[in-house]
Amino acid sequence: MIKGFKEFILRGNVIDLAVAVVIGVAFTAIVNAIVGSVFNPAIGALFNAESLSTALPVSIPTTSGGTATMYFGAVIGAVIQFLLVALVVYFAFIVPINYLKRASFRDKTSQADATPDPAPPTELQLLVEIRDLLAKQNVSGPGATIPQPTATGPTIPQPTATGPTITEPTTTEPNGSR
Fold it and tell me: 49, 102, 105, 163: which has the fewest Cβ within 10 Å?
């Protein structure tokens, strides 16, 4: 059980996810500081409010006869914060990683172009290799013979020590002469 847990924790995906969460929390803190200290006061000044959390108030009546106030500036602030986090992640992580992937792909393709795969051997080259290998196997001295097949296989004519014998084909005439 502990071995399985150890394998799960040390798997690359879990470690990558943990790193992503830690980095995400750190960037969120930075973006919150930028939004809270820079953008909220700037947009709040535009809408005559101290910050976005109190900007763009809309009062609506309640069922009890009072009023409730909705602050749309807080929504605008959350959208700005989301966009800033997305921009930081895109420019800090995605763009450099894509650049490295493209560079790696270019390197691999340039190496592949520089060393093309050799063409496969032709049928003639393969036959020559087979002939040479068979010749090496059969050269164990003068009068070497090809091993005989078993009784169930076809018979192979045996060459003599001086070479194979060539016989003329015989034809039989209807009158019995050659």
Answer: 163
Return the number of other C-beta atoms located less than 10 Å from residue 84's C-beta: 19
Q: Report whether 71 contacts 55 (CB < 8 A).
A: yes
Dump pLDDT digits (tens) for 32-77.
787 778 777 777 777 777 777 777 888 999 999 899 998 888 888 7
8 A C-beta contact, residue 31 and residue 84: yes
Encoded tokens for 51:
């910050």
Q: Where are the domains of the chain?
A: 2-113
- Whole-model pTM: value is 0.43
Backbone angles phi, psi at 11, to 5 degrees: -65, 145
Mean pLDDT, 10 residues at a time, the chain of 178 residues: 75 76 82 76 73 81 90 82 78 84 83 70 91 84 54 53 54 55
